[in-house]
Amino acid sequence: MRSDTVIKQEGMKILLEKLGKVDAERFISLIIREPFDYTKWQKNLFDKLNVAELSKRVMDSLAE
Fold first, then answer.
1. CB 37 within 8 A of CB 49
2. How far apart are CA 16 and CA 38, in angstroms?
3. Is the pTM of this model over 0.70?
4. How far apart are CA 11 and CA 33, in angstroms?
5. How many domains is the chain built from?
6. Domain residue limits at 36
7. Secondary structure in 3-state letters for the chain
8. Torsion angle of the four alpha carbons 21, 22, 28, 31, in this order, in degrees rounded to the nearest 10
9. CB atoms < 10 A from the CB of 25, how many?
10. Per-residue pLDDT tens for 26-46?
């Protein structure tokens, strides 16, 4: 199991790589500012996708 510090470092690295400095900072600010329940958000994230569409999105993201 990874430590909290390692998870935070890896998460920040991913945010910076994918969003850049400005948008990563905006993302963090948005998460801190608003009450956010990841579990509720995640449950509805893929509601409208069938298995084939979800699989294609995963495969496309892995190819990037």
1. no
2. 20
3. no
4. 18
5. 1
6. 4-63
7. CCCHHHHHHHHHHHHHHHHHHHHHHHHHHHHHHCCCCHHHHHHHHCCCCCHHHHHHHHHHHHHC
8. -150
9. 13
10. 999 988 887 878 788 777 777
